[in-house]
Amino acid sequence: MAQRRKPMSEINVVPYIDVMLVLLVIFMATAPLLTQGVVVDLPQAPSEPIEDTQDDPLVVSMRADGAIFMNLGMQDADDEGTRVTVFSLEEQAGKIIRARTEVPVYIKADHALDYGEVVKVMTVLQKAGAESVGLITDPPVLES
After folding, report:
1. How is the beta sheet containing 82-84 ordered, strand by strand?
2. Which of 64, 68, 84, 135 lies at a C-alpha separation of 20 to 30 Å from 43?
3. Which of 122, 20, 131, 39 lies closest to 78, judged by CA?
4. What SS3 string covers 51-93?
5. Residue 89 located in a structural domain
6. The whole model's pTM is what?
7. Is residue 28 part of a domain?
8. Is 14 helix (H, G, I), strand (E, B) or coil?
9. How far apart, in whole angstroms, are the C-alpha atoms of residue 27 and residue 22?
10. Does the residue 73 lie in any domain?
11. Which domain CATH number covers 48?
């Protein structure tokens, strides 16, 4: 005669805790990577935030020393993107804009940079096929 086992009424939660801890580590490791590459001191302007309709915008960053970087989408925070010159920017941005005609194009320029340099890059991006070029700014700091 075989003995019948009593049904177990407890749930083993150890595998669920393991999965939760692995996910926590993954999120903690990837959260700092969601910032854009080149460090620039952005000008402050009271503007409304743009609704982000696409995941990977084309961001052209301009440092105070005049260096230009092209970055497609959100990448590693340590990765500045691809360094380009004004002369090669039209060709490289044109390839991306022709491949993805609806890609949003933004310029992130240091506030100490000459306005003429920013306009020059905007003109090159429009020649490359960008319908509109947005400028990225920081919100103004309210002094109390």
Report:
1. 82-84, 68-72, 58-62, 105-109, 133-135
2. 84
3. 39
4. CCCCCCCEEEEECCCCCEEEEECCCCCCCCCEEECHHHHHHHH
5. yes
6. 0.59
7. no
8. helix
9. 9
10. yes
11. 3.30.420.270
- Whether residue 38 lies inside any domain: the answer is yes
Domain around 46: 34-135
- Residues with Cβ within 8 Å of 41's Cβ and at least 6 positions away in sequence, in order, are 64, 110, 111, 112
Q: Which residues pair with 133 in a beta bridge?
A: 105
β-strands 82-84, 105-109: how paired? Answer: unpaired
pLDDT tens by residue, 99-126? 888 888 888 888 888 888 888 888 888 8
The C-alpha atoms of residue 6 and residue 70 are separated, in whole angstroms, by 66
Q: Residue 23's pLDDT is what?
A: 92
The angle at the Cα of 101, spanning 95 to 107, to the nearest 5 degrees, equals: 75
CB-neighbour burial class of residue 31 (10 A; exposed 0-12, middle 13-18, buried 19+):
exposed
